[in-house]
Recover the amino acids of this structure.
């Protein structure tokens, strides 16, 4: 905690992310109705009209729905999809990576090939192709994004295991007679977990961008469901006359990914004993 | 060296084969294949005729063998919408994508490596903070959003640049600029991190003890050691561009392979989609070999 | 050597590093000087700040987190600290040069060694062609065979000793007035160490440069130094001629340090009545075409310390790894209570793990950094249920910690929160938790400072008596073996050269190789070392 406060940008990022999380959790309950209420007089209402209800401060969309409320409600879907995809890909990827790194047999050879196949394809395109064959529902989008991100965890976990399994403390555990399961889950996993969590933070941002791009291309979430990416796409035809339709949801995406990037940067330093002093000395003598 | 290339070819061949199988079964098992090959408004008779013509009523295994046989002969069939061989259509589009990727990656790599190295040398300084801040914003920006904002400002608002197409040099400015942002941010981050490690290493200390100047220390002693992880990200980013920067190509109406793939998907032009998948996968295979060769050229400890 | 002005003089230097726990004063008010043709040794244990002042001489201290608080560094009367970066660069490498411990990480891995040596000359104004010719001459001078070919090779293609020769060639390229050597032989085998030290001495005699040698090893001081300064916790506690300081140390710290030096106690008398507890017969190990172990046979007797000594690549650690089944042997038998260890099923092996335990070289690496001391020790009982019931774990860990000399306040600490010596004690407690019969110590005290080393050896000795243990003690450091072992086995190139009682090996070695090994090892006493050197030179000229 003390370390987090030492890095001001990272503390701001954490505060912003907590706020977003609250929006995602509470937004749909409190604002669902307001956000979907059409109001023909408020069509494409410009932002910063502070005499209106606060939900209209960022303007209204093409159907006169208040943008701010829509952004808060859309946070739920956007974050739910990203969270689901990150957790699923991290779990599966890590388990496969542990198996691939530990096994000296065929599994060790074969599992990395799976990663190669998925990686020979950029995630966005893979998602496009699979969603072209499957129904674009929330579950399927999570599934597709999760599959495309598995290689990242798989490769990292495997590379780390290959290195750590040669370390002395793993050999010490072998000498004590520890079982394979014990060595992998009690000795190796805790050591590589910080690295994986750092990657996951970064990946969360990546998945969010990918989801937005899918929605933008029209093969992600379908209306009346809504995500930030979809809002940007829906605002595109009105770009010249009502820039705010696309601008605000885009800004929400940028700020969220930026916060995640900052947090991930901080995590990387905070979890690395070699670089930690940079935070601990507070950067007061930097120069 | 030859053994390495052979091994690499075999393992990529396995990957490609898995991909081929996956694509086939996904396209057959998830619904009526005529949905994939024929326009959505095709009549029931047309579907039936198509089935018989292409043997879609035969057992799955025979269909699969046919499909593999066609692939081996590089016969992807004709584009349904364009009445030209699918492969030809894809290769035409791929040329554009290749140019776009090369130009963008050359600019990105040069800028990110230089600025990242300097930021690492002045860790914590003003320059480092500015570089880090901008690279973080760059890495966080959704490209479709940047693209439409850029069009609004520079093309519609100021009227300086064309909105889409490829006619003149000016047409390239916006796509390259938009594609530049994210890879630049990501690569700069990696360069910076890797250079901080390299500059703190024992051999740089030796160089200091020898009296080596700052510039040679950064760009001669540290940079070459720091390049391996950087090459990996450059490879990943280049791969993403080679596959067609789907979103950016679509928005700017750039006739590359990404736009082609999206269009073909929306137009249900399955032969083109398949050909595009294969061509880009092959291109990425070649690029990965180049990256591996670059590793070996940079680090004498790596020998294949 | 009564020069009016010393070549280099460090005056009242204080350096502070900013850390999480607040500023740490790495050196306080340190002064020393060295003249032309003179050898000054800076002696200290890890964390004593012995390298800091020489880093300041070469402008190698990172600021931040480092900060030079006060003092002067006078080189031929001019204060280096007052000069610009650019001016100091013209001195670094040309007038003052440095060689480091661990030459592998100090040579740039991606450039050919010839290029790296040339670079020193080129940046100080020599032409490329001239530098190239000079490089070949230097490589020949430091004893690298086939210089032309060697110059095009990369650091990883050389052996440890050769790499240090390359560093020396690079440092001496411009015939500096002063050479600073920071632990130049620490990771090297004894015979290689002797060669490198001899080379440095020769080159110093040739060029008349001043030499500052930073070391933790009293033997190196005895071999090389005219004068010595002793450092402890950032301060100089004693200074004087090398021989006087050894004979008549004034400061209590120096006295303790010299008393702790191994190789001075009485040797053990071997008991003849013991029976073998473990017998190796024709054990071999091959890696592809390379044979690491050529069918070796030996016995370990009940209650004895069997030392296996040898240089790197001798196969001494391979033996241990095979016994503990960390690797599979290629052939042979290892009989323990009539059972062949090397052919056991995984199930029998699991039970047997209790009986034979291991203590590794570097406790920093052999303890899982994410487990507390309590977790590290009690894990043994989770793996082998039935030794200690869960309710008694905490009490038993406390008992074991007490046995290795730590109180139960250490239970909740993590390895990085305790010192190196304490970590090795925890590693020993962990081995004891399984109540083994045999403990294999693989270089178990090599990474420790001398005083800590002496304590750990005493601990091992006490535990042997109280727990009825037998040790296989693998080491490269002969003085430690001399003090601790009952029997000694000398290995080289995967074969046993000689085995015998400790007294026989040290006093009447039968084999040439054993004699060389003993002659190369350094004695902390400068006078003994002078005699040995004379004897060695006589042997060479004869």
């Amino acid at each position: 905690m003390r370390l987090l406060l030492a890095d001001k940008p990272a503390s701001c990022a954490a505060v912003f992310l907590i706020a977003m999380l609250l929006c995602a959790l509470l937004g749909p309950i409190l604002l669902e109705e307001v956000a979907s209420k059409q109001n023909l007089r408020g069509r494409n209402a410009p932002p910063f009209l502070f005499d209106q209800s606060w939900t209209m401060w960022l303007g209204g969309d093409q159907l006169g729905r208040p943008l701010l409320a829509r952004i808060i409600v859309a946070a739920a879907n956007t974050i739910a999809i990203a969270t689901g995809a990150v957790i699923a890909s991290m779990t599966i990827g890590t388990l496969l990576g542990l198996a691939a790194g530990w096994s000296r047999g065929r599994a060790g050879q074969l599992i990395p090939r799976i990663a190669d196949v998925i990686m020979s394809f950029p995630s966005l395109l893979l998602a496009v192709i699979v969603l072209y064959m499957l129904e674009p529902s929330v579950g399927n989008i999570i599934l597709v994004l999760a599959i495309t991100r598995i290689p990242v965890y798989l490769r990292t976990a495997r590379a780390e295991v290959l290195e750590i399994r040669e370390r002395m403390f793993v050999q010490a555990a072998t000498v004590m007679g520890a079982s394979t399961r014990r060595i992998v889950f009690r000795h190796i996993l805790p050591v590589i977990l910080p690295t994986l969590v750092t990657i996951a933070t970064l990946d969360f941002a990546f998945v969010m961008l990918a989801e937005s791009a899918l929605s933008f291309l029209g093969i992600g979430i379908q209306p009346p469901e809504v995500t930030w990416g979809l809002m940007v796409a829906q605002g595109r035809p009105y770009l010249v006359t009502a820039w705010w339709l696309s601008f605000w949801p885009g800004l929400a995406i940028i700020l969220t990914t930026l916060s995640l990037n900052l947090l991930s940067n901080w995590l990387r330093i905070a979890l690395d004993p070699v670089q930690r002093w940079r935070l601990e000395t507070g950067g007061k003598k930097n120069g | 060296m030859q053994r390495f290339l052979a091994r690499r070819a075999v393992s990529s061949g396995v990957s490609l084969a898995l991909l081929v199988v996956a694509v086939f079964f996904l396209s057959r098992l998830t619904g009526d294949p005529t949905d994939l090959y024929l326009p959505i408004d095709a009549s029931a008779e047309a579907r039936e005729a198509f089935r018989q013509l292409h043997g879609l009523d035969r057992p799955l295994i025979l269909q699969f063998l046919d499909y593999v046989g066609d692939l081996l002969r590089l016969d992807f069939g004709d584009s349904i919408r364009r009445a030209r061989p699918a492969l030809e259509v894809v290769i035409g589009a791929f040329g554009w994508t290749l140019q776009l990727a090369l130009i963008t990656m050359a600019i990105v790599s040069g800028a990110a490596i230089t600025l990242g190295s300097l930021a690492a040398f002045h860790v914590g300084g003003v320059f480092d903070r500015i570089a880090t801040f901008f690279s973080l914003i760059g890495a966080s920006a959704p490209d479709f959003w940047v693209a439409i904002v850029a069009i609004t400002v520079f093309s519609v608002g100021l009227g300086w640049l064309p909105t889409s197409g490829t006619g003149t040099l000016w047409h390239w400015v916006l796509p390259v600029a938009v594609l530049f942002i994210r890879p630049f941010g990501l690569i700069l981050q990696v360069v910076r991190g890797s250079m901080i490690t390299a500059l703190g290493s024992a051999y740089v200390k030796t160089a200091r003890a020898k009296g080596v100047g700052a510039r040679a220390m950064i760009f001669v002693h540290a940079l070459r050691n720091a390049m391996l992880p950087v090459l990996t990200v450059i490879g990943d980013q280049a791969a993403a561009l080679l596959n067609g920067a789907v979103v950016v190509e679509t928005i700017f109406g750039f006739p590359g392979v990404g736009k082609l793939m999206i269009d073909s998907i929306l137009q249900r032009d399955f032969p083109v989609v398949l050909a595009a998948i294969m061509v880009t996968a092959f291109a990425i295979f070649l690029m990965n070999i180049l990256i591996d060769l670059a590793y070996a050229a940079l680090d004498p400890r790596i020998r294949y | 050597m009564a020069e009016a002005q010393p070549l280099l003089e460090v005056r009242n230097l204080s350096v502070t590093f900013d850390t999480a726990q607040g500023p740490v004063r790495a050196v306080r008010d340190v002064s020393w000087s060295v003249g032309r043709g003179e050898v000054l040794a800076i002696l200290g244990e890890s964390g004593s700040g012995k390298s800091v002042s020489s880093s300041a001489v070469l402008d190698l201290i990172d600021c931040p987190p480092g900060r030079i608080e006060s003092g002067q560094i006078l080189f031929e009367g001019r204060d280096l600290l007052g000069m610009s970066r650019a001016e100091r660069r013209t001195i670094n490498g040309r007038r003052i040069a440095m060689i480091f411990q661990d030459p592998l990480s100090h040579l740039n891995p991606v450039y050919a060694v010839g290029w790296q040596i040339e670079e020193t000359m080129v940046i100080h104004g020599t032409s490329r062609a001239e530098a190239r010719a000079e490089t070949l001459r230097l490589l020949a001078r430091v004893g690298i065979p086939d210089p032309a070919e060697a110059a095009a090779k990369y650091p990883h293609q050389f052996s440890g000793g050769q790499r240090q020769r390359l560093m020396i060639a690079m440092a001496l390229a411009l015939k500096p007035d002063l050479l600073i050597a920071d632990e130049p032989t620490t990771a090297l085998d004894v015979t290689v160490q002797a060669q490198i030290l001899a080379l440095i001495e020769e080159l110093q005699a040739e060029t008349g440069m001043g030499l500052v040698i930073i070391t933790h090893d009293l033997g190196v001081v005895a071999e090389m130094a005219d004068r010595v300064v002793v450092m402890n916790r950032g301060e100089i506690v004693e200074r004087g001629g090398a021989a006087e300081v050894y004979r008549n140390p004034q400061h209590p710290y120096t006295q303790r340090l010299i008393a702790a030096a191994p190789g001075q106690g009485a040797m053990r008398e071997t008991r003849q009545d013991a029976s073998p507890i473990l017998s190796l017969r024709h054990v071999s190990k091959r890696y592809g075409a390379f044979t690491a172990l050529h069918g070796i046979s030996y016995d370990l007797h009940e209650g004895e310390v069997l030392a296996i000594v040898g240089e790197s690549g001798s196969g001494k650690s391979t033996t241990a790894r095979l016994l503990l089944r960390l690797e599979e042997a290629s052939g042979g038998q290892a009989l323990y209570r009539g059972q062949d260890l090397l052919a056991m099923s995984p199930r029998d092996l699991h039970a047997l793990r209790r009986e034979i335990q291991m203590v590794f070289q570097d406790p920093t690496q052999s303890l899982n950094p994410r487990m507390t001391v309590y977790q590290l020790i009690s894990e043994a009982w989770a793996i082998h249920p039935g030794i200690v019931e869960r309710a008694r774990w905490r009490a038993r860990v406390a008992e074991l910690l007490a046995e290795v000399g730590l109180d139960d306040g250490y239970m909740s600490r993590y390895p990085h929160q305790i010192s190196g010596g304490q970590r090795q004690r925890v590693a020993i407690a962990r081995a004891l938790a399984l109540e083994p019969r045999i403990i294999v110590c693989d270089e178990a005290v090599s990474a420790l400072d001398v005083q800590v080393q002496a304590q750990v050896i005493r601990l091992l000795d006490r535990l042997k008596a109280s727990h009825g243990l037998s040790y296989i003690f693998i080491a490269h450091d002969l003085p430690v073996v001399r003090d601790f072992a009952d029997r000694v086995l000398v290995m080289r190139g995967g074969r046993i050269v000689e085995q015998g009682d400790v007294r026989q090996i040290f006093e009447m070695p039968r084999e040439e190789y054993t004699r060389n090994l003993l002659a190369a090892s350094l004695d902390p006493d400068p006078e003994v070392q002078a005699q040995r050197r004379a004897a060695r030179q006589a042997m060479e000229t004869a």
